[in-house]
Design goal:
By secondary structure, the protein is α/β, with parallel strands linked by helices. The chain has 13 helices and twelve strands. The strands form three sheets. Strands 2-1-3-4-5-6 form a six-stranded parallel β-sheet, sandwiched between helices. α2 packs across α13 and α9 packs across α12. The N and C termini lie close together (8 Å). 46% of the residues are buried.
Length: 322
C-alpha cells in the first residue's frame, strides 16, 4: 500500500502538531506492506503559508497523490478533490470555535474553506473524543466518518535522565492568548512558587515572566522531571500533549476541567477552573500535597498512550479505505 503523508507541519512548527507527525512517522517506518511517501511544500515564512493553503493543498498535493493508494493529511488542511481516498487529522477546531483570537489569514482560511475540506475527506482522524465532538458540531461531519486516535508520548520523556535544579512549577505552551498564561503567572505568585515557562513566542503580544523560550526535547524532559508540578490550564485544547509528557516524566499535572485535557489526564491530574486564578493556585498546592500519589497515577496513565498504538489504528483505517 502506497501512502502519501503530508509532513508540512514539520517546517511550520515544533509544537504539538509537529510532535504528532514525527511520532506517527517513527511508528510507521519499516512496517511491512506500507510504502510511505513524504509530501511537503514551502518553509516557515508567511508567504509560504499562504501559497501552501491557497494553491498547494487544493491543487499541487492532489496532483502528487495520483500515483498513491491513500493520501493522509496530518492537519485539517487538505484538498477538496483527490483521485485517491483522503484522510485528514484534526488536532483541534479552535479556529472555528474562537476565530477572533487567530491572525487574519487563519480566520480567512477557516471561514472560506475549512468545513468544505473536512466534509470532502473520506475519513477524519480526531486526536480525542472532545475533538471528534467539535468536528461533528462545528464542521458538520457525520460522526461515523470520524475515528478517534489519541496521540502517544515520545521516548525522550521518561523518568530516566537528569532533572533541572530549583524549586519551581513549569508551564509548557506557545505564547498565545488561549494558553491562559497570564493567569498561570498570577496563580504561581499566589501559591508562592517560582514559575518557568517553556514554549515558542506566538502571537497576540503575550509576555510572561519566567519565560525561557524554546528548548531541545532533552532539556524539556529535564525541566519536566525537575518541576514540582506542571501547570496546564489552557482555555482550549484538542488534546494537550504536555499533560502526558509531564506524567511520563514522573511529574504531577494541574490542568483544566471540562476540556480535552481532562479526557487525556483521566483521574491522574488535579483539575481546576482555568478562568479563576484562585482555582489554579489551589490546584498547584493540591498537586504539591498529593505529589507521590499523582506521580504513580500519572505514570500509569501515560503508559496507555503510545505512538505504536496510534500507528496501528491509522494503518487499520487506511486498509479500510483501499
Amino acid at each position: 500500500m502506497r501512502v502519501g503523508v503530508d509532513t508540512s507541519p514539520l517546517v511550520q512548527t515544533r509544537a504539538g502538531t509537529a510532535r504528532h507527525v514525527r511520532g506517527l512517522l517513527g511508528a510507521l517506518r519499516d512496517r511491512p506492506g506500507i510504502d510511505l511517501e513524504l509530501l511537503s511544500f514551502g518553509g516557515t515564512r508567511r508567504a509560504s503559508s499562504v501559497v501552501r493553503d491557497a494553491l498547494w493543498y487544493p491543487l499541487g498535493l492532489p496532483r502528487s497523490a495520483r500515483r498513491l493508494d491513500v493520501l493522509h493529511c496530518t492537519t485539517f488542511r487538505g484538498p477538496t478533490r483527490a483521485r485517491v481516498p483522503t484522510v485528514l487529522t484534526v488536532h483541534d477546531l479552535a479556529i472555528l470555535r474562537y476565530p477572533e483570537v487567530f491572525p487574519l489569514w487563519h480566520r480567512l482560511y477557516g471561514r472560506a474553506g475549512l468545513r468544505r475540506v473536512l466534509r470532502s475527506a473520506d475519513a477524519i482522524v480526531a486526536v480525542s473524543e472532545f475533538t471528534k465532538g467539535e468536528t461533528v458540531e462545528l464542521a458538520g461531519v457525520a460522526a461515523e466518518r470520524v475515528r478517534v486516535v489519541p496521540n502517544g508520548v515520545d521516548a525522550v520523556f521518561g523518568t530516566d535522565g537528569p532533572s533541572a535544579e530549583g524549586d519551581y512549577v513549569l508551564a509548557v505552551a506557545t505564547l498565545e492568548p488561549r494558553k491562559n498564561l497570564s493567569r498561570v503567572v498570577e496563580a504561581a505568585d499566589l501559591a508562592g512558587i517560582e514559575l518557568r515557562v517553556v514554549g515558542a513566542r506566538g502571537w497576540g503580544g503575550v509576555e510572561v515572566g519566567g519565560w525561557v523560550g524554546e528548548v531541545p526535547d532533552a532539556e524539556l524532559a529535564s525541566l519536566y522531571r525537575g518541576a514540582r508540578c506542571v501547570v496546564y490550564p489552557s482555555l482550549y485544547e484538542g488534546f494537550g500533549l504536555p499533560v502526558l509528557e509531564a506524567m511520563a516524566c514522573g511529574t504531577p499535572v494541574v490542568t483544566s476541567s471540562g476540556t480535552s485535557t481532562e479526557e487525556v489526564a483521566g483521574d491522574a491530574a488535579v483539575l481546576v477552573d482555568p478562568l479563576y486564578v484562585a482555582s489554579i493556585a489551589g490546584g498547584i498546592r493540591e498537586a504539591l500535597d498529593r505529589r507521590d500519589t499523582l506521580i504513580e497515577l500519572g505514570l500509569a496513565r501515560a503508559a496507555e498512550f503510545t505512538w505504536q498504538r496510534a500507528a496501528d489504528s491509522v494503518v487499520e483505517l487506511w486498509r479500510e479505505l483501499t
